[in-house]
Structures are given as C-alpha cells and as structure tokens.
Amino acid sequence: MIELEAQILAKNDALAAKNRGWFLGREILALNLVSSPGAGKTTLLERTIRDLKNKIPISVIEGDQATSRDGERIRAAGAAAVQINTGAGCHLEADMVEKGLAELKPPFGSMVMIENVGNLVCPALFDLGESAKVVILSVTEGDDKPLKYPHMFKAAEIMIVNKVDLLPHVDFDVGAAIGNAMKVNPAILALRVSARTGEGMDDWYDWLDHRMLQSRL
Ligand SMILES: Nc1nc2c(ncn2[C@@H]2O[C@H](COP(=O)(O)OP(=O)(O)O)[C@@H](O)[C@H]2O)c(=O)[nH]1
Ligand SMILES: [Mg+2]
Fold first, then answer.
1. Model confidence, pTM
2. I need a surface site. Which of 66, 78, 145, 193 has the fewest CB within 10 A?
3. What's the rounded mean pLDDT across residues 80-88?
4. Nearest CA owner, ligand 1 atom 8
5. Yes or no: is domain 2-214 CATH 3.40.1410.10?
C-alpha cells in the first residue's frame, strides 16, 4: 500500500513540476483553492472575477466529484472555466490540470484559479504545479480546524477566514483560528473576508497584485 502510494505521488510530482514550468514560462499566477465543502471557494472566485475582470484576465479550472454547477457559476461571473469531475476521487491531480489547461488556453501574464475538490485532507498531498495554495476556512466550521487538519494549513501560503459577516451568530474566535494556523505554519498569512458583503476583499486583491508581480520576476 505504502509503496503504491509513494509511486502515485512521485508520478504526480513529476507532472506537477511540468505544470509549474508551463506556468512560469507564461508568467501565469496559478492558485490552488482548497477548503471543506461550502467554505465559499466559488463565491470568493465569483466576486473576484466580477471585481477584477477588467484588470487581470482570470480563468478557472473547477474540480468537483460531480456536476458542472461551479463551472456554470464561474462562466456567469464572466470568466472562462473548465469543469473536471473526479468521480470517486477526493482531489485534483496534476495530469487533470494539464488536460484542463490544454482546453482553457490561459493567456500570457494571466491568473489561473484552480478550485479543488472540497475537503481538507487529500488535496494537501497532491501538488498541481500551482504558485501557491490558498486555504479558505469559514467561520461556521470551528476555529480548531487548522490543528485537526495540519497538513493542509502547513501547505498553504495564505488562509482566508471567510463569512466574517456571520461572526455575530457563531462562537468562532478569529484570533484563535489564526493562532492555531500559525502553530502548524508560522509563515501563513491570514485575511478576514466576507465573499458575500465584500468586507476584506481589498486585502485579498492586494495580495493577488503582489503575487502577480512576483510571477513576472
Ligand atoms: N454568509 C455568507 N455566506 C457565504 C459567504 N461565502 C459563501 N457563502 C455561502 O456559502 C455557501 C457555499 O458557498 P460556495 O461558494 O458554493 O462554497 P464552496 O463549496 O467552497 O465552493 C453558499 O450558500 C454561499 O452563498 C460569505 O462570505 N458569507
Ligand atoms: Mg465550489
């Protein structure tokens, strides 16, 4: 079992390195969005696309076990999207992203958002060749989740605490959530956002600007 898993991961890593080179050569910022189901990945993308589409070309690879609902939401927000259904699979793999890119054909100097299958476990193991993983934790999920799913929070460069508009109704301590994330990943950056009301979205856009500049170096 362990041998087989190591082989699968090694094959994935080799393909992810190929994807990373492909992005680098085209100065594309590629972000891998990970979270539990319903944390707000698609909502965050919809608002980001609506706010930034005249500034930065954005295209999206959508991963879900079934349906093309998220791909349709993204297209309605004004960006090109390719939907990948993983069936029984709990994560996207680098070869799926490679195929998605061949169809999507993102332009030079653009941004590619990859919405991974919703769960905080398997997507942490599979490198897709992204520039960074973005983990989204919503305030209805409990502030202890970074301690319970440390691999995901360790792998992420940035944590978005989403649905802060709901804070008056839940017992979620944002400071504790950020502290817990920093216990497993002292370098993680944390932003407080409501993808519904737009609160905190400017900080997210500043971070995207900064990472876009880095992908051009
Ligand atoms: N109150 C509130 N609801 C949100 C926010 N972001 C997303 N939602 C809702 O949470 C649900 C799941 O969102 P979705 O974007 O589909 O999550 P995904 O599964 O991570 O892509 C939907 O009903 C959204 O409208 C937010 O910032 N505040
Ligand atoms: Mg979604």
1. 0.97
2. 66
3. 97
4. 40
5. no
